[in-house]
Design brief:
Strand order of the largest sheet of chain A: 6-5-7-1-12-15-4-16
Number of strands of chain A: 19
Radius of gyration of chain B: 21 Å
Number of strands of chain B: 2
Largest interface: A-B, 77 and 76 residues
Strand order of the largest sheet of chain B: 1-2
CATH superfamily of the largest domain in chain A: Alkaline Phosphatase, subunit A
Shape of chain B: flat
Largest sheet of chain B: 2 strands, antiparallel
Number of domains of chain A: 2
Largest sheet of chain A: 8 strands, mixed
Number of helices of chain B: 11
CATH topology of the largest domain in chain A: Alkaline Phosphatase, subunit A
Strand content of chain B: under 5%
Distance between the termini of chain A: 66 Å
Oligomer: heterodimer
Chain lengths: 503, 244
């Protein structure tokens, strides 16, 4: 009988091989994934679920511009627009409202500050999509209606740049089709999205022992795993019979070098952003918050009850620590209230609601207030991420933000009309809309296309020159191709480039 | 057609559930005939008239004189239609709780406050329709899933070891070594019991030998209890323990 007893020395040697190298212990991953780029670009997909209407955000229409159409068109009195420099082609809604639809929660929008700070990195491109079904539209928003073999833009970016990253494509948002797997099954397994359900506690699953109530030394764990993986599992009759089952094969593939490499990178020390205080009490279990935890908690202070803040906190840490090249986050479809908020009479305190039911789609109940509330929320999270990324050097004075793009993805637009002079009303879904991109890599301070101020309908532009073309509407395929161009992804002519979108 | 399907089902069940190998037999997994049918490699044959071609193991077992000594020890032909399911977090935790006789609520917590199976439920194949609007299990098992399983297994086994070593007279899994004698024979006895508790079958000679020998690869500090925890761990987190 062959003696295949796993020695501690052998287990340690294998770990040492993984930890060697200059990329924080990720050599095992790098070695097993060919084609990784040394000069990655990062993508943040910020999902505005439910239908973020571009004419309630940066392309808002004034009553003056609408003229005679104003009473029945979704447009705004001049007084609500922030006082932006005339060279800025965007509008900001600055107003205080007493409710979001029928929910009595006062709020104030502060969009001017965001636009002023980031207009140079902001591009709005018009778009007319192809579905008013939420799930179908969300899926098409990230695949460009299957513009490139059905790949999502996250998968395309992960495939291009993620080879050397432990988890190239992380999905923090749940319950949306923005995180649906694309149709191209030819990509390497690591290019598909890794779902994170609980951003605050998920980093615990990056180490098999640390922080548990009965931890063991890493070499002890390595010894046991080697015995299990290389001897007991391989030789077991169960394995002999069922190794060919998809689930077993997949499971076996997940164990091993990639798993060990994640632990060797000590990500559990870098990604826990919660404080060492109740209910987390990290110190009691030998853990400590990430060195950047205070920084991200300051940027996203509601991390403990607002899922989007928690997602954004982890999103930054995933990029900063070179764990991922693309992260997807966004508002959900559930009502989010601060813990302990009383639903008694008199309305809710300002700031106590983070998300109305069905997100942007609450526009069915109250369009104006929902859009204003939700756009402000998108800007707030985007602004937090941008500030954090600007503060991190990539190399040679270049910041992480310099090579990152935020794609504000949404389902579709909203219907353009309103009852005569209504201040609040409900809207339906409309294919006609636009997208927002934020990045130093895009043509900033730019609107590609435009809006007919008397109908609220957006029109297109020449993809090459960016010249307005009122007889044209932009397709999902074109916008998708343009975003790939910004991200530096060459599709060998399988998608059309959009030079006008690139810086 | 119906009969064929029924036989196939019975055969698959036998193959899946009758895997235990008798220690003395070296892992035959029951009679060779049952194994042959269990793998369903011939499309649902019964065990009444096995032929030499039905399993590789059986074919190899005949020596030059034509004597049939049964299949090679530990040999199991691959299933022609392997269909097994991952246990998912709650089912796995419940199985561990029952096997190790640890109340479910104290089996494993993250940071002393969050139930492990709940924290890792999505990674381990469950859904959360009302909280996260995840109506279907993840299409692809995430890379973190094996680590999450290791955390649960390590914690549960560590808890069992702690309890047994604190009160050897009431030990559930590790009585032979918890009382202070971690000799090879005592470790053998523990391994045999762990296989019965965690996998509901007898261990093979080879399995007992391997798990027992792991003791020599562990640090001398608190060696017996560490070995107990890790012996439990390697079995509790084996592929066999995670699928059904």
């Amino acid at each position: 009988m062959v003696n295949s007893k796993i020695s501690r020395r052998r287990a340690l040697a294998s770990l040492g091989a993984i930890s060697a190298g200059g990329f924080a212990g990720l050599t095992g991953i790098r070695a097993s994934r060919a084609g990784g780029a040394e000069d990655p670009r990062f993508l943040i997909v910020l999902c505005a679920s439910g239908g973020a209407s571009i004419i309630d955000g940066p392309l808002a229409i004034s009553e003056v511009d609408a003229g005679a159409a104003a009473p029945t068109l979704n447009c705004f009195p001049e007084v609500v627009f922030g006082n932006l420099d005339p060279s800025i082609p965007f509008r900001a809604i600055d107003a205080s409202l007493g409710a979001v639809g029928p929910i009595p929660v006062p709020f104030t929008t502060g969009q001017q500050a965001f636009i002023e700070s980031h207009h140079q990195d902001m591009l709005v491109a018009t778009l007319t999509s192809t579905s008013v079904n939420h799930q179908v539209a969300q899926s098409r928003a990230v695949t460009g209606n299957s513009a490139w073999r059905g790949r999502t833009i996250q998968e395309a970016v992960a495939n291009q740049y993620g080879a050397a990253f432990p988890l190239p494509n992380v999905h923090l948002a749940t319950g949306t089709a923005f995180t649906q797997r694309g149709a191209d099954s030819s990509l390497p397994a690591w290019a598909y999205g890794e779902q994170v359900a609980s951003p605050a506690l998920w980093p615990l699953a990056l180490d098999g022992s640390r922080g548990t109530s009965h931890p063991v030394d890493s070499d002890v764990l390595a010894t046991a795993r080697a015995l299990r993986n290389d001897v007991l599992d391989v030789e077991s009759q169960f394995n002999q019979a069922f190794a060919g089952a998809d689930g077993v094969r997949n499971w076996t593939g997940l164990r091993g070098s990639s798993q060990a490499a994640i632990e060797q990178a000590e990500l559990i020390d870098k990604l826990l952003f919660v404080p060492d205080a109740a209910p987390y009490n990290l110190g009691a279990r030998g853990l400590s918050p990430s060195p950047d935890a205070e920084l991200v908690r300051a940027a996203f202070p509601n991390y403990d009850w607002d899922p989007l803040h928690a997602q954004a906190a982890l999103a930054f840490l995933l990029i900063k620590n070179r764990v991922s090249v693309t992260v997807t986050l966004g508002n959900g479809f559930d009502l989010v209230l601060e813990d302990g908020t009383s639903l008694g009479g008199g309305g809710l305190p300002e700031g106590s609601m983070a998300n109305p039911p069905i997100g942007f789609d609450f526009s069915h109940q109250g369009h104006r207030s929902t859009q204003a509330f939700m756009w402000s929320r998108i800007y707030e999270v985007a602004g937090g991420l941008i500030t954090l990324l600007q503060g991190e050097e990539w190399r040679d004075g270049e910041s992480l933000w310099d090579r990152t793009m935020i794609y504000v993805a949404t389902d579709f637009g909203r219907s353009k009309g309103r009852p005569s002079n209504a201040g609040e009303w409900g809207t339906g879904h409309d294919l006609n809309n636009g997208i927002v991109l934020l990045s130093p890599m895009v043509s900033g301070n730019t609107v590609l296309g435009g809006v007919n101020a008397t109908t609220g309908m957006t029109h297109g532009f020449d993809p090459g020159t960016g010249e307005v073309d009122e007889g044209r509407e932009m397709t999902e395929e074109e916008i998708f191709g343009g975003m790939l161009g910004v991200m530096g992804i060459d599709t060998n002519g399988e998608t059309d480039s959009m030079p006008a979108m690139e810086a | 057609m119906f009969l064929d399907s029924r036989l196939t089902l019975v055969a698959l069940c036998c193959g899946a559930l009758a895997l235990p190998a008798c220690r003395g037999g070296g892992g035959g997994g029951g009679s060779s005939d049952t194994e042959t049918a269990g793998t369903d490699s011939t499309g649902g044959t019964t065990d009444t008239n096995p032929t030499a071609s039905e399993t590789e193991g059986e074919a190899e077992s005949q020596d030059e004189t034509g004597n049939d000594d049964g299949p090679d020890p530990g040999t199991q032909a691959p299933s022609a239609r392997p269909r097994v399911k991952f246990k998912t977090a709650q089912r796995y935790a419940t199985d561990l709780s029952n096997a190790l006789e640890i109340p479910r609520e104290s089996l494993c917590t993250e940071l002393d406050d969050f139930d492990c199976a709940a924290v890792h439920r999505i990674a381990l194949g469950e859904v959360d329709a009302f909280g996260l609007r995840l109506f279907e299990p993840l299409e692809n098992m995430p890379l973190t899933a094996p680590i999450a399983v290791d955390r649960i297994g390590l914690t549960a086994c560590g808890e069992r070891a702690q309890r047994d070593f604190d009160a050897p007279g009431q030990a559930v899994s590790f009585s032979e070594v918890a009382s202070g004698d971690a000799s090879a024979s005592n470790r053998d006895a523990v391994v045999e019991r762990l296989y019965r508790q965690l996998l509901l079958r007898e261990a093979t000679d080879r399995e007992v030998e391997q798990v027992t020998a792991m003791y020599d690869d562990l640090p001398s500090s608190n060696q017996a209890q560490t070995w107990a925890q890790m012996a439990c761990f390697v079995i509790a987190t084996s592929t066999e323990a995670l699928f059904y």
